Amino acid sequence: MSDLSLPAMPAKKQSVNLLRGVMIVTFLAxxxxxxxxxxGFASVAxxxxxxxxxxxxxxxxxxxxxxxxxxxxxxxxxxxxxxxACLVLVTLMLHQVALPLAITAALLAALGVGLFNALLVVVxxxxxxxxxxxxxxxxxxxxxxxxxxxxPIYLLSQVLPSGFSAIGHGSLFGIALPLxxxxxxxxxxxxxxxxxxxxxxxxxxxxQASVARYSGLPVARLTAVAFILSALIAGVVGLILAANVKAxxxxxxxxxxxxxxxxxxxGATFSTTRRPNVPxxxxxxxxxxxxxxxxxxxxxxxxxxxxxxxxxxxxxxALGGLxxxxxx
Length: 328
Known about the structure:
- The protein is mainly alpha-helical.
- Helix content is 74%, strand content 2%.
- The two termini are 33 Å apart.
């Protein structure tokens, strides 16, 4: 008699599905809890505010982190790229420079951070962690020296072009522009990593660097491109900050660093390959943003929110570790 039973699902896939199920149920439970006990959490106004002010900039920063993480590295200097882009845009607006030229210069400033990282990592052979950490410290010092110890630059009394505020508050087809930035950057990065030979080369380099080198892949060029694109993507957050705050506040970009790394790691945990990926990163951003908002609305201070975020990341990573052990 023939066996008509379906083939057993691989243990690794079963574990991933179980982890996803646990996290989805947990997230839904948190949403229900916050909807019941956090005033205004489920309101349309609050959801729109979280998506626009929390999810959008953090998602862009996390996408920048994810691109480098695919290589098996980390970019600790995205805050510097954010701050430099914001500084250049605000300074040029202060001097009444045309908006398109100012935006271009701001993105070039962020790109310069990526070029510096590429120089350290590719040309000088510095480990990415140490290279970007050094860039972070240098960027902090440059900002403090150029601002008399950290004095912000405000644009509140300036006559600004109409398009300046639209960078952070404009809309297209009823959707806020920052959300369009996220959608377009996420789609472009997803297609790059999943549908092009460069994306496959990035993944190979991240999983087996020695194999990538022996296979003749342009490792140096791939690494340089990753760091340059990461800084350029992070620079978009600087544009949004400048338009929303109408000011440059030194070192404000570093506020996104840890949560962006956390979102990227959460996304990797949901993957069958445990590799950083665009959909997982966006899921991690949404999870962290709405949990932080819910804790704020029930009265938790910022410091306890950070504790909760750390605990959440630990729980996800622990579940991922248990999943891997069960798979083995």
